[in-house]
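ingest -> validate -> predict -> emit
validate: passed (alphabet ok, no gaps, 576 aa)
predict: started
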Amino acid sequence: MQGSRNGMPLGRVVAALDPLVTAATGTPDCTAESGTPGAAAAGLSSRVNSVAMVDPEDVSAQVELRQPVLPEVDLVAMVGVTEELAAQWLESLLDRPVGVLVKENIVGRRLCDAAARLCVVVIAVDPRARWDVVLSRLRRLLDEDRPEEGSVRDSSARASVNTLSELANLIADGVRGMVTIEDRTNRVLAYSPSESTADEMRTRAILGRAASREVMEMFSRRGVLTTLAGTTTVVELPAEPSIGMNRRLITGIHGPDGDPLGSVWVQQGEREFADDAETLLRGGAVSAAALMVQARLSASSAEEVMTRRLFGEDGGVDGRTAGSLLQFPPTGSYTVIGFATGEAAGSAKAEDTAGVASAADDEATRGVSRGAMEFLGRRLQLHVQAYAAGGRVSLVGHRAYVLVPEDGDTGGSRLIGWVEQLLRRFDGDETVSTRRVRAAVATPVDGLDAVAAARCEVDRVLDSPAVHRQRVTSLTKSRTTVLLGEIFLLLSMRPELEDPRLTVVREYDETHGTSLIESLVAYLHAGMNVRDAARALTVHPNTLRYRIERAEQLSGLDLQDAGDRLLTTLQLELQR
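emit:
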């Protein structure tokens, strides 16, 4: 689904799949002329939470009957599908994935053009790669990278389990088997790593495929589904080699009122089940119920859910549907404002933001509590309603997003002034006063269908570490800084682009206690003005000239050459 802000950046997914992946859109051999400039780069920075598989039958059903074949999913593996059918499928979707994986031999101009128009990244997989290997690796990557929404990563010890993925791994370790946690429709919500003995039934479940007819008939004969829905009994199923099923333990997940929420399945692997497997499984089901109920309560009202979807979360929504529930005209003019909290006020990181860091690292280190964000959201709702009746606020992870209808504010001066005043008010609130709240204002958009894109625009600004000093800004005002940050992020994901010549200079500094790298940075920042750079370093100009000459000798770079100078500047900023 386009616009998800949690999960692993797609560029990191592609890099981690090497050597299974041979190319992705945005490389010279697969760039659609009709694509929006920068769309591939933006797509590679989009975040991936989920992956699923489709086959020709699934795709044909979507194209011919307009029937959805997948739940909301970020990355889709297209198995056995032709290029023409893949392109038609993408064009038929309302909620499009961030990217699609296809075998390299079907990637052509037709598919690349369709994907570029829709801002979907096409990832070409080596034709020799097995799909089960690709998907297994993908799911393991996403599981390892997935924190609880609204939480921050830290290394402190904790006794609670925060995600279903963590719980699946915990149950698997205790029971000594391979676990899947499913909802009441048998959709897999989380699973533990598979062993070589994973059977066909488990594989199909994880890949989003229904169990075979033979398996469903066996379940019906034994009353398995009825038992799971109505009791907390642990059901043991012996191995059935004829239908590709190994031995299993299963128990139902029930809410506080007894309603069935789903089930926990454990397939026996290379080891026998633990002696207390049934006890552990029942405890795991209780923990799963608590996590599933908590997830339901986090979006308690239809309006909250619809507002989140309008901002691009949870699969998105079309403007007409959202407008009818939120009582907004779908064709009006709207502005999106994003609010983010930075490092603690006065901290070294808050003051020194000139260095380049990845957006993913920045997201992980914001360090704001869920309580502070909820406080910020509630306060925003009050202020927004006072500013523009009908304005909406939504909390997504560590950010708050505001949607206000256009009020004829030419140039946005009234809106900017209101946001600046709001931030000053937050500086006086003790709950968030220790955090530096910042805001980014998107360019006004026509119609609710463009709200998710406006949200992406403010995210680009808030993701840029180099604009943290600006309390209120926009992409228009900060475009150079934002684009440079995104360029550095992409370069940081390609270690082969690091220039070894500067590594020689850096190692010389470390060995001899010199400051050649520091001198290069100051010299280039001063526009190659020796006196200004020397003044900034508090050294004599001749000392600086010697250092620059020494750095050029060691590296072989010629800073009088425009190409060498540009490359050196980029490399130094990337390594700061």
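The two ends are 34 Å apart (CA to CA).
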